Please model this.
Amino acid sequence: MSEERKKVVQRFKERLAHLESGAISGPSHWHLFHLHNALNALPDDHLAADLHLDEFDRADLAKEFPEMDADRPPSASEIRNRFDMLAGGLL
Model:
């Protein structure tokens, strides 16, 4: 096993333990989603698995780096407002 793959496997183990410990506040469904995708990618493509682990860490990183807020997805309310404006122009 290459050193890079070993690092990704170790990182996966740490994220899984973190999730299992209940240390994640708020909904964990996105964490589960990214961890699941990382696990699926791990046997064939450790770089893709590493990217999924980056997404797993995104919320924690956003606390340290507020500039990441620009990558924040819109809220349901923001989507509704945009849709209403778009739909109003189409009808």
About this structure: Residues 3-90 form one domain. The first helix runs from residue 3 to 20. The chain has one domain: 3-90.
